[in-house]
Design a protein that fits this description.
With 139 residues, the protein is α+β, with helices and mostly antiparallel strands. The protein has six helices and four strands.
């Protein structure tokens, strides 16, 4: 998160004030990050920092990681109030598949955290998989 703010503001001093950190603390964090990654992310000048070409990859990945972390946090917070999980359906290819897909679509609009696994086969094959515990390809 520090890296993303510094990349946006291009000033360690300004970002340190925004984040209520000391400038040396933030500088140390950034140097440790560069050391960990084995690459220079910034060219430091007296008044601002200039980002290197290598920072583009890190910038993109850092944004993805932050988004994933935020999404995970939201999922944990919503878990108690929002229906989630997985529904497994075994069925054959029939005209009722259109009806089933419409119902799944409607259900997903109400409960987007619920995932569906559909196994299409003959009735005997579906029955056998349920009986043996080998359901939806997971044995």
């Amino acid at each position: 998160r520090y890296f993303l703010v510094v990349a946006q503001e291009e000033s360690i001093t300004k970002v340190a004030a925004l984040l209520h950190l000391t400038q040396p603390t933030l500088s140390r964090q950034l140097m440790q990050l560069e050391e960990e990654l084995g690459t220079k992310l910034f060219h430091r000048s007296q008044y601002r920092i200039i980002l290197t070409d290598d920072r583009m990859l890190l910038h993109r990945r850092a944004q993805e990681l932050i988004e994933l972390a935020d999404k995970t946090e939201r999922e944990f917070l919503c878990r108690e109030t929002e229906l989630s999980g997985e529904i497994a359906i075994g069925c054959g290819e029939t005209q009722s598949m259109t009806f089933l897909s419409q119902q799944i679509c409607s259900f997903r609009k109400l409960y987007p955290q619920v995932q569906f696994r559909i196994y299409s086969a003959t009735a005997d094959d579906v029955r056998e998989r349920i009986k043996t515990g080998c359901w939806i390809g997971v044995c």
